[in-house]
Write a structure and sequence with these properties.
This protein is of the alpha+beta class. 19% of the residues lie in helices and 34% in strands. It has three domains: 1-28 and 55-281, Thrombin, subunit H; 286-379, Roll (Pdz3 Domain), CATH 2.30.42.10; 401-487, PDZ domain (Pdz3 Domain), CATH 2.30.42. The strands form five sheets. The chain has a seven-stranded antiparallel sheet. It has a six-stranded antiparallel β-barrel with strand order 10-11-12-15-14-13. Strands 17, 18, 19, 20, 21 and 22 form a six-stranded antiparallel sheet that branches.
Length: 488
């Protein structure tokens, strides 16, 4: 493979299957009255130190709480999974020589991963992708005992699952630390079962924090150079105090093995998710009802704000809390419920972690002025639209667009409820429109914050933009809106 790919793993007889990394982080706000499901240190632990960690002692204490997870998937479900598998994964089977007739054999498929015990009652944290679609989940402890685990709940949006085993005894536990206090350069240890080799430890440092790797609106991974390999998924990332600060989840790799770039889900997210899973069997998240996108330098100059602050609202969903509060497309949300919004992704995390029904304040920048609004957070459902829109970086001749006014037939073709706009029928390769990220099938509804209902509207708006300056386009694509900047 010529480029890096993000991978997650499980194993089947004689072959490893690649899983694409999923989602990441929701901060643990709004949980002050919720009981702790996990074990934590009872005394304040010291901060990072320059003294080398005693990895031998840390491994001795932590390893017994790390478990080997084996899953079984019935043949019918496995075959259905094979049929739904993306082409690149099917190609992986071919590359590793798994015969087609073997794929058709009437026997269960097995997967493997890791997990770790977080309390004496037998609750176990792991990745959702380790146990997803499993008909049976088996847990093996370091002392050789095996248990059939119950799936308490799973959350694909953060790739976390909560299991439980019934032991009736005194199970070993790894206390959970505070991932927010992690420092780049801090030493960490990954524990798991890579390639089926049980109770393996690797050490390294925290290489970076807050990594967004394309998993979704809650991405906030810890990056580490401690080796994470197939089978490590779901195992703990442990700090020098012996606390779990992350859940090993994904790797960047050309070959499928570790090259020193691994990712772990922050454990503070797990505190929020496990409490929700234990109480409801699912995660209840707050919903505001906006599509947002990052602020590029060109967008920031167009709106007259700092590129690093706030979330640009590209659309507001009908009958949503945001619409009732008066939020409008083009607003830049700079504060939510008292929390300043820096990166765009911060808004999604904070809204998701806000208790449903809470009345919150929302500060936006609109036409250069700060406006304070009030909203009541609603419950996110699986039917809610995706809240984060992507925007390609524009670069810097005339437009290179072929457009036509929106008709009823075109609206049906595009599956849009918009009442006006220009449908993009062609984009000249290498043109300003192409480099701005405008695509065939886009619906242009605004230019420079003014409605566009005809080709004359578009021509007039562009003519009013001085040569060499930037025009701000609002386009609808795949059910959501996005702002793009185009240099004229």
């Amino acid at each position: 493979m010529s480029r890096f790919t993000v991978r997650r793993w499980w194993a089947v007889p004689g072959v490893l299957v690649v899983l694409v990394a999923l989602l990441a982080f929701v901060p643990g706000q709004g949980l002050t009255n919720a009981p702790n499901l996990w074990t934590e240190r009872t005394t304040q632990a010291p901060g990072p130190t320059t003294i080398a960690p005693n990895w031998v002692e840390i491994a001795r204490v932590a390893k017994p709480a790390v478990v080997n997870i084996t899953t079984k998937v019935g043949n019918e479900r496995a075959q259905r999974g094979m049929q739904q598998m993306p082409d690149e994964f099917r190609e992986f089977f071919k590359r590793f020589g798994l015969p087609q007739e073997r794929q058709q054999q009437q026997q269960p498929m097995q997967g493997r991963g890791s997990g770790f015990i977080i309390n004496k009652d037998g609750h176990i944290l792991t990745n959702n992708h380790v146990i997803d679609s499993a008909d049976e989940v088996l847990v093996k402890l370091s002392d050789g005992r095996e248990f059939k685990a119950k799936v308490i709940g799973k959350d694909p949006k953060t790739d976390i699952a909560l299991l439980k085993i019934e032991d009736g005894g005194n199970l070993p536990v790894i206390p959970l630390g505070d991932s927010d206090t992690l420092e780049v350069g801090e030493p960490v240890m990954a524990i798991g079962n890579p390639f089926g080799l049980e109770q393996t430890v690797t050490t390294g440092i925290v290489s970076a924090k807050g990594r967004v790797i394309g998993g979704g609106p809650y991405d906030d991974f810890i990056q580490t150079d401690a080796s994470i390999n197939p089978g490590n998924s779901g195992g703990p990332l442990v700090n020098a105090k012996g606390e779990a600060v992350g859940i090993d989840s994904a790797i960047f790799s050309r070959t499928g093995g570790s090259i020193g770039i691994g990712f772990a889900v922050p454990v503070n997210m797990a505190k929020f998710v496990t409490t929700q899973l234990a109480q409801h069997g699912r995660v209840e998240r707050g919903w505001l009802g906006v599509s947002i996108q990052p602020m590029t330098p060109d967008l920031a100059r167009t709106f007259g704000v700092s590129a690093s602050d706030g979330a640009l609202v590209s659309s507001v969903f009908e009958d949503s809390p945001a619409e009732r509060a008066g939020v409008k497309p083009g607003d830049i949300i700079v504060e939510f419920d008292g929390h300043p919004i820096g990166k765009t992704t911060e808004l999604s995390k904070i809204v998701a972690a806000t208790p449903v029904g809470r009345k919150v304040s929302v500060k936006v920048i609109r036409d250069g002025k700060t406006v304070s609004l009030g909203s009541t957070v609603a419950r996110m459902t699986d039917k809610e639209p995706v809240q984060v829109a992507s925007a390609e970086s524009p670069k810097g001749e005339r437009l290179g667009l072929a457009v036509e006014p929106l008709t009823a037939d075109a609206a049906k073709e595009l599956r849009t409820t918009e009442k006006y706009g220009l449908v993009v029928r062609d984009v000249a390769e290498g043109s300003p429109a192409d480099e701005a990220g405008i695509r065939r099938g886009d619906l242009i509804t605004e230019v420079n914050r003014q409605p566009v209902r005809s080709v004359d509207d578009l021509r007039r708006a562009v003519d009013q933009t001085k040569s060499g300056q930037t025009a701000l386009f609002r386009v609808h694509r795949d059910g959501s809106a996005v702002y793009l900047t185009l240099k004229t």
